[in-house]
Design a protein that fits this description.
Strand order of the largest sheet: 8-9-10-7-6-11
CATH superfamily of the largest domain: Aldehyde Dehydrogenase, Chain A, domain 1
CATH architecture of the largest domain: 3-Layer(aba) Sandwich
Keywords: NADP
Radius of gyration: 21 Å
Number of domains: 2
Order of helices and strands: HHHHEHEHEEHEEHEHHEEEHEH
Shape: globular
Organism: Epilithonimonas hominis
Number of strands: 11
CATH class of the largest domain: Alpha Beta
Helix content: 40-55%
Structural class: alpha/beta
InterPro entries: Ald_DH/histidinol_DH (IPR016161), CoA_reduct_LuxC (IPR008670)
Number of helices: 12
Distance between the termini: 16 Å
GO molecular function: acyl-CoA dehydrogenase activity
Strand content: 15-25%
Protein name: Acyl-CoA reductase (LuxC)
CATH topology of the largest domain: Aldehyde Dehydrogenase, Chain A, domain 1
Largest sheet: 6 strands, mixed
Length: 344
């Protein structure tokens, strides 16, 4: 059964975010001043969470929070009439990365028991407070230091952490997510605009998200200059201290090892078969036939979050510039969270 209060409250939360970014700080009300303060504190505590990236993230969420959009999403699932406690272990690699899990649990009529990431501990609880207030206090949730007393768990971590979590929660209903990344497949005739959108897929959130592209497959005859020319809008990324440290370190390692790489002073391209690349580096490989590409994608499907490509390549893919704009029914690791929650 749909909970009208929760849906309308989430829609109102989206409107609050939109109104917040339409104002300047001279016109903030008390709630808006609180959000501005928490965003500033978040960047101080975690320099990867810049104001720009936090704003982008919040505006993306707000654009999804309409009553029609939410109800269309929920209409695909039989929602529970019996509330269960669902433990959530959240990641902190990009802002609000665990928000979708929380929304899914609440709207499936369960109770989220939330273990926040230490890297993202400020804005998320505030958004939950607002959502609850806008929903006439109909949302039940807990923020905890340690998970106890739960019926199911959804956890996100590194591959090493996931092995521990799988063992620890082996007797519980669970979704345990591991490391994933995204890839792009170029046909060779992409426009400058498409390649500039690909830059968004690579550099947004400094490349820290599982939906960021870390590996590009290009035709044998494509020149790398076209990539560098269209990535130039992100040249200022090197001014971020933590990103620059990664760039300097990886460049020094490649020089020391006499590895071949291409450099434009803010990102490096390296011909490498590895799916994952270090921060500030993009791995690429060349292909002759689409059969090679499809074989590569199929072989690595358990580690690929999404593929960016033109539709005519015949891959299961999304368009350029869309990796960081997931819809409500886009699920991490391609595991349908709402389907899982509807049967616990």
């Amino acid at each position: 059964m749909l909970n009208e209060n929760k849906i309308l409250g989430l829609e109102r939360l989206g409107q609050f975010i939109i109104e917040f970014f339409s104002k300047n700080d001279d016109n903030y009300n008390e709630k808006e001043e609180r959000l501005a303060y928490l965003m500033t504190r978040s960047e101080i505590e975690n320099p990867w969470f810049t104001q720009e990236n936090q704003r982008f993230n919040l505006e993306q969420w707000a654009s999804l929070f309409t009553k029609d959009n939410i109800e269309n999403w929920l209409s695909k699932y039989p929602l529970s009439n019996s509330s269960k406690r669902v433990g959530l272990i959240l990641a902190g690699n990009i802002p609000l990365v665990g928000f979708h899990d929380i929304i899914s649990v609440v709207l499936s009529n369960h109770i989220p028991v939330i273990k926040l990431s230490s890297k993202d501990r400020l804005v998320l609880p505030f958004l939950l407070e607002l959502w609850n207030e806008f929903s006439n206090n109909k949302i039940e949730y807990q923020i905890v230091e340690k998970l106890v007393n739960f019926d199911a768990v959804i956890a996100t971590g590194s591959n090493n952490t996931a092995r521990y979590l799988e063992y620890y929660f082996k007797d519980n209903l669970s979704i345990i997510r591991k490391n994933r990344t995204s890839v792009a497949v170029l046909k060779g005739d992409e426009t400058d605009e498409e390649l500039q959108l690909l830059a968004d897929d690579i550099f947004r959130y400094y490349g820290l998200g599982c939906r960021n592209v870390t590996r590009i497959l290009i035709p044998n005859d494509m020149k790398l200059d076209r990539l560098f020319e269209n990535f130039i809008n992100y040249k200022d990324i090197i001014n971020h201290n933590k990103y620059a440290n990664n760039y300097d370190y990886n460049r020094a390692i490649y020089l020391l090892n006499q590895d071949q790489f291409w450099d434009n002073n803010f990102v490096m391209l390296k011909e490498d078969e590895k799916l994952f690349s270090p921060l500030s580096v993009i791995n690429f490989s060349r292909y002759e036939t689409l059969k090679e590409v499809k074989q590569f994608v199929d072989t690595n499907k358990d580690e690929i979050q999404t593929v960016v490509a033109k539709p005519e390549l015949g891959l299961e893919s999304i368009g350029f510039g869309e990796t960081q704009n997931p819809s409500l029914d886009t699920y991490a690791d391609n595991i349908d969270t709402m389907a899982f929650l509807s049967v616990i």
